[in-house]
Amino acid sequence: MTGKFITLEGIEGVGKSTNLEFVAGYLSDRGQRVLTTREPGGTPIGERLRGLLLDSERGSIPDTCELLMMFAARAAHIEKVIRPALEQGIWVVCDRFTDASYAYQGGGRGIDDEPIDLLKSLVQGGFAPNLTILLDATIEVSEARRVERGHRDRFESEEIEFFQRVRSKYLEIAKREPERVVIIDASRNLEQVQGALRSVLEIILDN
């Protein structure tokens, strides 16, 4: 028996962390063994790379280097954490995965899909999430929530135009892969968002 792999995606301020715990709790209540993790991160080397990526000053890491660091962390994450858990029948719920590279390094930084495709093929082959939940909100909602939170890391400090490009790329991915990516309107209140999440999770639990 193998577990299922669920990823949560979206721009800053859409509630990924809060809803990651909700998804994990809901699956656990339904009898599944669940592991939560995040990208970049999830392993000792991944967390060290995360620190470099988030804490460095804006512009201090060249765009191509940033992309390579993301996939280096991902390679360790898949091999050491995600695949072993799935093989044991554990469901893995991850805060961001490869879609984030297309959205942030691709859409945001302007890197073409081709090198991202190449790295994806090298690192994960045909491995992909069973379900990706895209928590989507307008840039205005995202910005208001980021301001409310206060401290910003290197990505959160980007300009609004950057996040407009990131969001557009996420929506492009969702349009291209509707069988995998489900969009949930994250601008609504938490109760409404989690109601929508329940409906999505019921479908994958029944399959």
**SSE-based structural type:** alpha/beta
In the CATH classification, which architecture applies?
3-Layer(aba) Sandwich
**What spatial order of strands do you see in the largest sheet?**
2-3-1-4-5
Supply the CATH superfamily name. Answer: P-loop containing nucleotide triphosphate hydrolases
How many distinct domains?
1
Please provide a brief summary of the model:
By secondary structure, this protein is an alpha/beta fold. It contains 8 helices and 5 strands.
Commentary on this structure:
Helices cover 57% and strands 13% of the residues. It has helices at residues 16-29, 44-55, 63-87, 98-108, 113-124, 139-149, 160-176, 190-206, and strands spanning 5-9, 34-38, 91-95, 131-136, 181-185. α1 crosses α8 (190-206) and α4 (98-108) packs across α7 (160-176). The relative contact order is 0.20. It is of the alpha/beta class and 207 residues long. It has a 5-stranded parallel sheet with strand order 2-3-1-4-5, with helices on both faces. The two termini are 14 Å apart. The chain has one domain: Rossmann fold. The chain is globular, with a radius of gyration of 16 Å. It contains 8 helices and 5 strands; from the N terminus they run βαβααβααβααβα.
